[in-house]
Request: fold
Amino acid sequence: MANLEPLGIKRIDSLHYYVHDLDRSRRLYVDQLDFAEVGRSDATLTAQAKQQSVHFRAGDVNLVFFEPRGKGGRAARFLAKHPEGVGTVVFEVADAQRAFELLDARGATFITDVQRYEDEGGVLRTFSITTPYADTTFRFVERAGYRGHHPHYEALEPPAQSNKYGFSHIDHITSNFPTMQPFLLWMEHVMGFEAYWEVAFHTDDVAGPRDAGSGLKSVVMWDPHSGVKFANNEPMRPHFRQSQINVFLEDHRGAGIQHAALITRDIFETVRGLRGAGVRFMPTPDSYYEMLPDRLDRLGVGQIEEPIDLLRSLEVLVDGQAKGQYMLQIFLQEAAGLHLDREAGPFFIEIIQRKGDRGFGAGNFRALFESIERSQKAEGRS
Reply:
């Protein structure tokens, strides 16, 4: 592992999401997920960038959506190659000039030099680089008292109350690649990240060799100074093309960000509210909950606070690695399913409540596959 000076990353500042229809995104994130709309590009920036943008916020989760306004803008170029999705990850750093110098010495490819802007509060410094995703870039911002989100952004008065579901911050970002080693090496030797966690899993582990199946390899890289984490997946043989990861790559038309995991204070309150607002989640078979107590014993987690019937009623998943330490998670349907439009893309939101466990739900890969196999056998379909 490379022992490099840290870039001074403080947090994930925001994700830039390129879409065909801002109103559709507003209906999901503002009307259903209760994000506040806090800013938008003014007429000057919209005309110069050839795209309209809006800024949605919940807690410390910032999502900026961009819709093309004519040809040639960043959103239009991204959407010419891909369905809707995340095209830029923005990091807040302590010192943009120092981060620039470190990245330059490590061979990063820059899109811009350090740009400097001022407002009545202070200074904003920012620059961007390319990444092994190809069409997803990284941006770095230093906010030295700068009050706005970005130059030529109009601040909007947020509602008196928002974020009723208690989203606090982005726990991690998950990305899919046809081969992830180039990205892992780049994250280590250019970004200065370190390996944090890894797993490999295949349905053959559950059902034995057969004519069809799905598998993945996953490695999490992190910046230990900020806690920022990237989970990275690639398809696993056999049945490479049937892997859920490869299906994403085909749907997204290349490597990209599969999902962002958001921390919530009370996952049951969150899921109840979101279901009531019409948000749809990935389904969990009932047999998952029949097997859950035994699986938690095998994992060493033991007893959990939540009744199994409560988990089952809301289809919340559980995973852990040590006694009394576990996590609760659930996944929204991918955007294409939520919007009933394939061009809405395969990106989705994960919701997490951590109760001591710092893992990534690897046990749920196996448990879900086991439960599916059990259901198929009960129905005489295997």
Notes: The two ends are 44 Å apart (CA to CA). The chain has a mean pLDDT of 90.
